[in-house]
Amino acid sequence: MVVILSAVQGFFDNYGDPRTKDWFLMSSPLPTLCICAAYVFTVKVAGPRLMANRKPMELRNVLIVYNLFQVLFSSWLFYECMMGGWWGEYSLRCQPVDYTNKPSTIRMVNICWWYYFSKFTEFMDTIFFVLRKKDRHISTLHVIHHGVMPMSVWFGVKFTPGGHSTFFGLLNTFVHIIMYAYYMLAALGPNVQKYLWWKKYLTSLQMIQFLAIMIHAFQLLFIDCNYPKAFVWWIGMHAVMFFFLFKEFYKQQYSKSSKQKVSNEKKMTANGVSQLPNGYSKQSDYYINGNGLSRPDLVHRATAGAH
């Protein structure tokens, strides 16, 4: 085992970009892998157990500040990515990695690392779901999306920080500006929420993003470009996976059958209480309280004559 680990580490040292070799978390993939594993364990096991007998936390102000931070952070990442190459210097058709130490090149390398770091800050999306007991939102899609991204971006920063693959980060940060702006507005309460009719278009935007990344990546399979084919497949298949995951999510959330199911559930609900066939009742999945937040209620209560 020691021999294998030494060989793997030797591969990273010999073939990794020397400019990022000694940067924080970049010497080995193990720290990133461990952080991602800890994230999955926390949001799927430890967190729900911790909150099982506790009331959902009211985090309205925290969510507003957090989402504002993400809007500003994503805006800065997008701007730096543009200034680092995509505003005129980079080519959409073929952009090899520049391994020199030119100021503009180092600027792009730096922003690649900060984009990698941003994936850890996004873990808080799920942590807040856990603390607010919104377990329905902690879907397989959500956990895979957040859990895989840091490890995926780590390889990019390690071997190809810059060039063709940064198109992924460019589009992703742009989408996140809009996405976190939506979440921030939603956290402001019902007076603002009534204007957020465009929620489903966020999912459409995500799918368009991954479709564009697929086309941009896979075009290099048909043209001569000095860019590693392994990373073409890595980025392209990554986009394919997330495209179909988001497509399935869209289908489940916004198809006619799903809307009909929601409509039927609403008809069964009166004064916030849904009647269940086993003689029990429960409060609706959410209600709007005094501060405008939605909060799930997982407490089942016996009806008056049940026991």
Automatic annotation (TrEMBL):
Its EC number is 2.3.1.199. It is a multi-pass membrane protein. One of its GO terms (molecular function) is fatty acid elongase activity. Keywords: Fatty acid biosynthesis, Fatty acid metabolism, Lipid biosynthesis, Lipid metabolism, Membrane, Transferase, Transmembrane, Transmembrane helix. InterPro entries: ELO_fam. The chain crosses the membrane at residues 23-41, 62-79, 113-131, 143-161, 167-189, 201-219, 231-250. It catalyses: a very-long-chain acyl-CoA + malonyl-CoA + H(+) = a very-long-chain 3-oxoacyl-CoA + CO2 + CoA. The keyword Lipid metabolism applies. It is found in: Membrane. Its main location: membrane. One of its GO terms (biological process) is very long-chain fatty acid biosynthetic process. GO terms for cellular component: endoplasmic reticulum membrane. The keyword Membrane applies. Belongs to the ELO family. This is Elongation of very long chain fatty acids protein.
